[in-house]
């Protein structure tokens, strides 16, 4: 006689939105002070108000709102609105998009969207407390902000470099193209900018070569290397009269090396650039994220 199997009881998982108090310790106001420090300052204001005007006690929420107003959030109508703004600016996503999964009062997982729209899910395999688990996912969420900021700075630097080069150099033809009807200041995506590497590097312009080389390299490394090598070969043939080269021969290789543009070497980037070019090149290096 077959025994009836006892059904396995499945424990329900409920969804819980993260709260302001869950994230408060990770939030900074625009001035740089933390949300936790802001609460301490609000208490100090209340205490000072009480000593000066004991008959006119200052409500805590109003005191905290004053702190928010004076530290970069003058537009908020209440503290809750201020915290929503801080979550968005510090974590990179709306508070409503951050969810915890709870089973029997314990956190078992997380789901949320990064600032770039990527949906991130995590499981709490190690039995971490609510506070510990939230602490473990914050770095990932913040990395989305850093990545977005880096991309924006890279695009801004590219646009600044193009404008600077165009203002300082004379070109027979423009070395870049944009979507019809758009100016460089209106560009919001790198993909909207197309660069002719040969025109940029080897046109009639002789100034700002290191910056032009750096910009070309960011756009298309292979085409940039090809342009440098072709230019070097042309110089070598013109000076030496050689019509053919065999780079398997050390003598030909060394001769070609002598005709490479110095500014394409690291030492050239260091000493052959003006201060404006160096700042732009530094920003390209620090924020490079591909074209």
Structural account:
- By secondary structure, this protein is of the alpha+beta class.
- It has two domains: about 110 residues, no CATH class; about 140 residues, no CATH class.
- It contains eleven helices and six strands.
- Strands 1-2-3-4 form a four-stranded antiparallel sheet, covered by helices on one side.
- α2 crosses α3, α7 crosses α8 and α8 packs across α9.
- The longest helix has about 40 residues.
- The radius of gyration is 30 Å and the shape is elongated.
- The protein starts with 13 loop residues before the first strand and ends with a helix.
- The mean pLDDT is about 80.
Compact summary:
With 291 residues, this protein is α+β, with helices and mostly antiparallel strands.
The oligomeric status of these chains comes to single chain
Q: Helix fraction? A: 40-55%
Q: Which structural category fits the helices and strands?
A: alpha+beta
How would a textbook summarize the main sheet?
Answer: 4 strands, antiparallel
- What is the C-alpha radius of gyration, as a whole number of Å? 30 Å
Strand content: 5-15%
The low-pLDDT segments are: none
Please give the alpha-carbon distance between the first and last residues. 71 Å
Q: What is the typical, i.e. mean, pLDDT?
A: 82
Work out the count of structural domains.
Answer: 2
């Amino acid at each position: 006689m077959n025994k009836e199997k006892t059904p396995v009881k499945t424990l329900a998982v409920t969804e819980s939105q993260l709260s302001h108090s869950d994230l408060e310790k990770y939030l900074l106001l625009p001035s740089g002070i933390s949300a936790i420090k802001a609460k301490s300052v609000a208490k100090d204001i209340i205490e000072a108000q009480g000593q000066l005007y004991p008959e006119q006690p200052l409500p805590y929420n109003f005191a905290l709102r004053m702190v928010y107003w004076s530290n970069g959030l003058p537009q908020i109508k209440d503290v809750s609105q201020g915290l929503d703004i801080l979550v968005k600016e510090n974590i990179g996503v709306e508070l409503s998009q951050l969810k915890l999964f709870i089973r029997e009062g314990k956190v078992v997982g997380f789901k949320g969207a990064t600032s770039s729209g990527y949906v991130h899910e995590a499981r709490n395999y190690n039995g971490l407390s609510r506070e510990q688990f939230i602490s473990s996912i914050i770095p990932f969420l913040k990395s989305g902000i850093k990545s977005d900021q880096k991309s924006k700075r890279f695009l801004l630097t590219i646009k600044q470099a193009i404008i600077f080069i165009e203002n300082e150099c004379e070109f027979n033809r423009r070395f870049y193209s944009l979507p019809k009807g758009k100016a460089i200041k209106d560009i919001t995506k790198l993909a909207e900018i197309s660069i002719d590497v040969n025109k940029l590097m080897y046109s009639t312009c002789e100034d700002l070569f290191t910056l032009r080389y750096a910009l070309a390299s960011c756009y298309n490394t292979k085409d940039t290397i090809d342009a440098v090598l072709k230019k070097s070969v042309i110089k070598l043939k013109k000076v030496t009269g050689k019509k053919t080269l065999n780079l398997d021969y050390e003598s030909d290789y060394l001769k070609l090396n002598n005709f490479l543009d110095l500014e394409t070497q690291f030492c050239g980037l260091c000493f052959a650039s003006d201060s404006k070019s160096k700042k732009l090149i530094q920003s390209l290096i620090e924020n490079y994220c591909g074209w």
